[in-house]
Amino acid sequence: MKKLFLFAISSITIFSGFTVTYAYTPTSQDQITLVQLKNTLDQINSGNVTDIWNFSTQIKKLQPMVANDPRITYLLQELHTHLYGQFSIAKIKTKQASKSGWNNFLAQYNTGIVAISMEDKCFWRYNTLDNISFANNFPTALTVATRYRESHCGYYLPKNGDGPFQILAKEYGTGEITEETFTQSVQDFIDFSKTKYANYKSKVDINISYTGTDLNSIISHWGFYNGGTISGRIVFPNAPKYVYEGYANYNSWQYASWAIRHGLLPKFLKTLEFELNNYY
Q1: Per-position pLDDT tens, the chain of length 280
Q2: 199 vs 226: CA distance, rounded Å
Q3: Residue 32 to residues 47, 84, 167, Cα–Cα distance (Å)
Q4: How far is 63 from 80, CA to CA, in rounded Å?
Q5: Contact yes or no for 134/142 (Cβ under 8 A)
Q6: Closest Cα to residue 189, out of 146, 154, 152?
Q7: Quick count: other Cβ atoms within 10 Å of Cβ 110?
Q8: Exposed, middle or buried by CB within 10 Å (0-12, 13-18, 19+), for 204?
Q9: Distances in Å between the alpha carbon of 147 and those of 101, 135, 162, 164, 267?
Q10: Which has the closest alpha carbon to 50: 4, 81, 15, 8?
């Protein structure tokens, strides 16, 4: 991954030299420098949304380190705004281009979902989840549905220390959670999932992206994530309830009649429905 850190540090070294507390008014030289920095960033990222997101995230982390220098604060904020604007425009265009396909997917499978009377906190940080998912070319609904099933979308660190997505290989601690840890856990989940896909790509067909997927791919994803058995090019989950609970479609009535919460598939569909109605 391309790194902005050394670039930003070198910029700070060039621009620093004073520390003041009053509001900063940029000079004409600052404006020239800012144009140069924006052009450099644009050349480095070449319009790649993953790089743009990573660069903007690194700038955001740098800002508190220079909070006592209004000149550097101004320059970093302008660069962050520039990058985030590019990222947002790209995401809007991608949503528009993929809306029809997602609507078709939803129309095909969004039936037979049992109503569950449970407080749903999964959309409270939708924009954060959506940004990270888009930056990694991963379906936001898949991120939301997995978080829901693993931790009810609570904004806390579970008692077992495995984090909001229950990744056994990671240690997150317990109790209160910071925004930095939360966003890192989302990235860890996507990285973990993609590593599974890569390890089994010669055996299993996985077609999962921000712009679309198919039923077998998302079932295979959850088979990988919660344990499954490979049969042909599909991973069948060892715990069907984990996937189908509350979903009365496709011969799964036995998982719907006593459902306490939604399985991953119906939650994926309901999340997709929410997205299409509110963010596409």
Answers
A1: 455 444 544 454 444 444 444 578 999 999 999 999 999 999 999 999 999 999 999 999 999 999 999 999 999 999 999 999 999 999 999 999 999 999 999 999 998 888 876 667 899 999 999 999 999 999 999 999 999 999 889 899 999 999 999 998 889 999 999 999 999 999 999 999 999 999 999 999 999 999 999 999 999 998 999 899 999 999 988 888 888 888 887 555 566 667 788 999 999 999 999 999 999 9
A2: 16
A3: 22, 20, 46
A4: 10
A5: no
A6: 146
A7: 16
A8: buried
A9: 24, 18, 12, 6, 10
A10: 4
Report the chain's C-alpha Rg in angstroms. Answer: 22
Nearest to 38 by CA among 2, 4, 70: 4
DSSP 155: S
74: tokens are: 């101004």
Report whether 222 contacts 143 (CB < 8 A).
no
- Other CB atoms within 10 A of residue 46 CB: 9
What residues form DSSP beta bridges with 175?
157
Residue identified by tokens 């030289």 is 29
The one-letter amino acid at 79: L
* Spatial distance between the Cα atoms of 163 and 188, rounded to a whole number of angstroms: 10
Classify the phi-psi angles of 81: left when phi > 0, otherwise alpha if psi is within -120 to 50, otherwise beta. alpha
Q: Quick check: 272 and 105 in contact, CB under 8 A?
A: yes
**Strands 228-231, 234-237: pairing kind:** antiparallel
Note the pTM of the prediction, 2 decimals.
0.89
Q: Let me know: does 164 contact 187? Beta carbons within 8 Å.
A: no
Q: What is the DSSP letter of 23?
A: P
Q: Could you tell me where the beta strands, DSSP code E, fall in the chain?
A: 228-231, 234-237
The owner of tokens 């009535």 is 253
Residue 280: both structure tokens together: 């596409």
Report whether 73 contacts 31 (CB < 8 A): no
